[in-house]
Amino acid sequence: QQQVKQSPQSLIVQKGGISIINCAYENTAFDYFPWYQQFPGKGPALLIAIRPDVSEKKEGRFTISFNKSAKQFSLHIMDSQPGDSATYFCAASGRGTSYGKLTFGQGTILTVHP
Amino acid sequence: DTEVTQTPKHLVMGMTNKKSLKCEQHMGHRAMYWYKQKAKKPPELMFVYSYEKLSINESVPSRFSPECPNSSLLNLHLHALQPEDSALYLCASSQVYRGGQGETQYFGPGTRLLVL
Questions:
Q1: Cα–Cα distance between B6 and B111 in angstroms, integer?
Q2: How high is the pLDDT of residue B96?
Q3: Integer Cα distance of B93 and B106 in angstroms
Q4: Which of A81, A84, B25, B42 has its CA 20 to 30 A from that of A13?
Q5: Is A46 close to B106, i.e. CB distance below 8 A?
Q6: Minimal Cα–Cα distance from B100 to chain A, Å?
Q7: Which of A12, A1, A20 is nearest to A92 (CA)?
Q8: How far is A112 from chain B (nearest CA, A)?
């Protein structure tokens, strides 16, 4: 019940296209859903995060869509750029998890071709 | 400023060596974390400190010994490591979990550890 399932494992998109990464969770106690972007050899960097009281949050080209009833959330990257090529992790935390412990998805390797 | 710094960036050590990793943050966060990350995998939680006290140890072998000397610093002491311990070691910090909402964790750049 603590798992977060992320798909796809890898994604190839042309420059200017839309990248979509999906995550699903089981634990209804989760109430915080961040997305992290990680470049090779670097630490994960917080990209955008959402709480379940809203269904969508947009920051620049990045949008999180959240479906509480389906227990799913997704990251949309509009106008994808080669510089967006990285590994993306969804995560979840909240009530019932000790000290805000993050449960990560398995990651999606995004490649944006020029 | 949301910066977490880690030193060293790279570390090579033999199985009999003793070394330490250092993490520092000045965001006033009172929760600090150590994670281990293998290639192409998500970070795995090792330890959590809250208000300078060890709150969570995820059954980590005793050859890893964490220390939190003050609210800004976090160390990870390494001794008698195995080659399979080679990984990226990440430090993170956040506001203390307030029992109702998850809190944003900010990660450092990591220390790339190679055990020979």
A1: 7
A2: 76
A3: 5
A4: B42
A5: yes
A6: 5
A7: A1
A8: 18
